[in-house]
Amino acid sequence: xxxxGPCGVLLVFFLFVCxxxxxxxxLPAQPSSPPQxxxxxxxxxxxxxxxxxxQNNPRVKAVLSGREMMDAQVREARSGWLPLLQFSETFTRSxxxxxxxxxxxxxxxxxxQNFAIDxxxxxxxxxxxRTAVNxxxxxxxxxxSSARVAQARIGQDQADHQxxxxxxxxxxxxxxxxxxxxxxxxxxxxxxxxxxxAESDRSRIDDLFRSGRVVQSxxxxxxVQLAEFRQQQVQASGDLVTAHAFLNTVLGTPIxxxxxxxxxxxxxxxxxxxxxxxxxxxxxxxxDYARAGSxxxxxxxxxRGARGNYLPRVDVFSSYGISGRDLASGSSDYxxxxxxxxxxxxxxxxxxxxxxxxxxxxxxxxxxxxxxQIRLEVIQAYQDxxxxxxxxxxxxxTVSQAQEALRIVQDRYKEGLTTITxxxxxxxxxxxxRLNLICARYDHYIxxxxxxxxxxxxxxxxxxxx
Length: 466
Hints:
- The protein is built from twelve helices and six strands.
- It is an alpha+beta fold.
- It has a single domain (about 5-75, about 145-310, about 355-465), classed as Outer membrane efflux proteins (OEP), CATH 1.20.1600.
- The strands form two sheets. A four-stranded antiparallel beta sheet has the order 2-3-5-6. A two-stranded parallel ribbon has the order 1-4.
- Helix 7 (about 145-210) packs antiparallel against helix 8, helix 9 (about 275-285) packs across helix 11 (about 345-415) and helix 10 packs antiparallel against helix 11 (about 345-415).
- The chain is elongated and about 140 Å long.
């Protein structure tokens, strides 16, 4: 990116690149009217804008849903510690000898006649209704449930970190959009003043030309200057409409709402710490870094759960049932028991453990990579802020110098001591210096906001609220 920042690049483009300005084509005196707005809001303060965005922005709603998912996942994981109670109702009709023999016993209808060889080998079909209530409870499930619960709880922490990260990102977007509207408003005001100045110059030079005191080229040069300033006025008006649309998008309001954003981009003092301290704060406060740490802990729980496959499993169970020839009759029975299962040979558990360990190594490496990225982001944000601050100081001095130079050149032109080219060049320099100052102030504000976000400290907008 250019060292002049996005504002400076845009300004240079307006002043020197636009083909209409180079060709000297005159444009309408008034800027084109913006699209018709749906509504006009009341005065919008910066804290109110942030609160509105945090309530309406879809990204906040998405992370809230993510937290609800994690809460549900915790409840689901905890269910592994609780018994499972099942109810079943089955109907079977068969002439299978074993089935018939067993069902008669279940129904308490087995009698001496059922010992007949022909009856045992070739029984008549029998219907059996079986109503049962079964209870299963894993007393020890090889640490599977405890690992899942621990991972689900860590998932809750990750969802909270994600929520805070999104909230800080939205605050940053609101700052960009809110001050972007102020920037566009001030650019519009400056270009309007430049158009009025150019119109006054043209009118004065036209009078001088009619009286024969200047040549026609002076008048034509003044008209070219006026056309160029009008072009910038039109562009500034369009940028203002776009800035409002961007702000509405961030706030979650109708796109064509004209927000009443009041205030000015003024000189403001910020006091960020040095880079070493900022890096320390970032590694301590950044929600995404904390989220990466949670991912490492979750992978550790995954390793612990995989190791549990080498342990035995203990289950208890009970069953109560009623068997009968129909739903209205039958004989009841029950069963209780416990079981221990130990996998003597299972190739899959070794693979699962290796997989969990690999996931742990990946999570650790990603956390280290993120730490390096955070250090770089902090240094970049701090240097961009320092650059914007210095450019603002230079731009502030340049405005005063350009204003004084314009006064001197205009006085000299009135006395016939300089050319119209020198006057127009000085007017352009004055306009450019004013626009540069506005852009530098905007970059100064946003640069400090980026420093706060890079360190995870953009928790409110109080430092920017004038």
